[in-house]
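Hello Y.,

Per our agreement to keep a running log of every chain we model this quarter, I'm adding this entry. I've kept the format consistent with earlier entries: sequence first, then predicted structure.
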Amino acid sequence: MTPLLPEEDLHAFIDGELDDARARQVADIIASDPALAEQVAAYRADKALMAAHYAPLLHRPLPPAMTTLLARAARPRPRVNLVRLAMAASVLLAVAATFGYRLLLPNDGNAIDAAVAAHGGQRAGQVIASDAAKISEALGLTLKLPDLSKVGYTIADVAVYPGAHGKAVKIAYRNAAGEPFTLYLEGSPGREKFEITKRGDVLVCLWQDDVLSTVMVGKMAAAEMLRVASLAYNGLYF
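Predicted structure for the entry above:
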């Protein structure tokens, strides 16, 4: 029987944070369990994927709102925030910290509501070509068309809608099982914000900078949403 391996030890092993003795023990446990070895390989692949996609962001300055939030998190009183910050990977630090934005900033529910309605087919849009130039023209920005094939999604169609800040664009994806994933884009109200929330049976990720509100909608777990959302958001720019 394979010894029970705590989840925290597994991730510490992948991140190279265990001492030599415990690392050898964990390596032996993984080697004796093919399913666990496959899980470790998947975790490492995800880690490499995230690092590759976030690498271009490492040298970009943090938005002022994030800097303020991180400064607050460094104060002695909010111990929970300090623990989370200490455990977070450096590339994901700003992303993880911004989960608290919905407590500090006005709600951007309009973009989320519009995206969920578009995802569910409750809004009719004007279908346009699945082309980065057409999307850029509609939004008045220079954007790319995100390739989500690495996570199993291909583009189904692209449509334009009236948005709260000019035009909005819905890029509809589907996976091999026919499950939809929506990337909804519209002009930002000017605040940086990140949040993941549940709406009915779908998960919604709002990733907003000072120019663009990017809303991702799909039926999936939070970890999978973060993975797909990371590819989608970065795929717009890189």
